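User: quick one, sequence for these C-alpha cells?
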C-alpha cells in the first residue's frame, strides 16, 4: 500500500501480511481519534504512507522517496531465518538516513527489548501484539501524539535560514517562509516572494538553485518551494501558492512538476 507523501510519513513493517494490514488500520483509526478528541490536531492530515513486509521493501521505499521526519512501526522479528535482517537492523538503517525518525517497535516478545537498548536505537515505544485491539489503538494514539509533538518541535527548532544580501546588508528569511523566487524585471536581480512580503536583490537563479535543494526549478526563470504550494493547474501550467499568488511552469518541466505532486500531499491538482 502506497500513498502520496505527507508531512510526517508513517511506515509499517511486519512480515505477517494480515498483521501489518491490521496495524495500518489501527494506526489510521488512532489518528482519527486524535483528530476527533483534540482541537490541536484538527488539521492533522496524516495516515499510513507505506506498508512493507520485509527489510528490503522498507529500505527501498525509504531510499527512493528520501523519507525524512518519518514515524516507523517495526516488527522486531521480520523473518524466522536467523541470518535475515530484523527490525532492529532496519531501525539502525532508518536512524542513519532520517535523524528525526520516530521508531516504535511492535513485538510479541519482550525478550528483544534489551537488544534495542544495547544497540542504542532510541525507540519511543514498544507495543505488544498480545494486547487487545482496543488497548493497541489506545497505545498507538498515545505514541502518535508523542511522535507528532516530537517531530513538530524538532522541525521548529531546526528550521534553516535562507540568506541573501541587499547592498552590504545580510538578510535572512526562514526557508519555510519562501513561496517562490523568479527573475526580476530589473536586470541581474531576482524577485523573492515570502509569506511576509516581497523583496528584490542581486542574484542568479541558477546559483540559487544549486545552493538550495529545498527549492524546485519549474522554468528557466522560476524556483518554487513545494511545501507552500496549494494547487497546480496542469491544463494552464499554473502553480498556485497558499497566499493565492501564481507562477507558470514550462512544458519542459512537466516531469519535475509531476514528481512534486507525487511527493507532496499538500499539493492538489486542478
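Assistant:
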Amino acid at each position: 500500500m502506497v500513498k502520496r507523501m505527507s508531512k510526517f510519513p508513517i511506515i509499517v513493517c511486519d512480515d505477517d501480511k494480515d498483521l501489518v494490514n491490521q496495524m495500518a488500520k489501527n494506526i489510521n483509526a488512532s489518528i482519527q481519534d486524535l483528530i476527533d478528541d483534540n482541537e490541536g490536531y484538527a488539521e492533522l492530515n496524516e495516515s499510513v504512507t507505506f506498508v512493507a513486509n520485509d527489510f528490503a521493501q522498507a529500505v527501498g521505499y525509504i531510499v527512493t522517496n528520501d523519507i525524512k521526519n518519518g514515524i516507523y512501526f517495526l516488527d522486531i522479528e521480520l523473518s524466522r531465518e536467523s541470518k535475515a535482517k530484523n527490525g532492529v537492523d532496519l531501525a539502525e538503517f532508518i536512524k542513519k538516513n532520517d535523524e528525526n525518525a520516530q521508531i516504535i517497535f511492535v513485538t510479541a516478545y519482550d525478550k528483544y527489548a534489551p537488544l534495542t537498548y544495547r544497540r542504542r536505537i532510541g525507540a519511543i515505544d514498544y507495543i505488544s501484539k498480545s494486547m487487545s485491539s482496543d488497548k493497541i489503538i489506545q497505545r498507538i494514539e498515545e505514541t502518535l501524539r508523542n511522535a507528532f509533538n516530537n517531530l513538530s518541535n524538532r522541525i521548529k527548532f531546526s528550521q534553516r535560514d535562507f540568506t541573501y544580501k541587499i547592498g552590504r546588508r545580510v538578510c535572512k528569511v526562514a526557508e519555510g517562509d519562501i513561496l517562490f523566487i523568479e527573475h526580476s524585471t530589473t536586470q541581474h536581480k531576482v524577485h523573492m516572494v515570502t509569506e511576509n512580503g516581497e523583496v528584490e536583490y542581486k542574484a542568479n537563479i541558477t546559483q540559487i538553485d544549486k545552493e538550495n535543494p529545498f527549492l524546485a526549478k519549474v522554468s528557466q526563470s522560476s524556483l518554487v518551494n513545494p511545501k507552500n504550494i496549494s494547487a497546480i493547474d496542469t491544463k494552464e501550467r499554473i502553480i498556485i501558492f497558499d497566499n493565492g499568488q501564481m507562477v507558470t511552469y514550462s512544458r519542459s518541466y512537466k516531469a519535475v512538476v509531476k514528481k512534486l505532486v507525487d511527493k507532496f500531499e499538500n499539493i492538489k491538482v486542478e
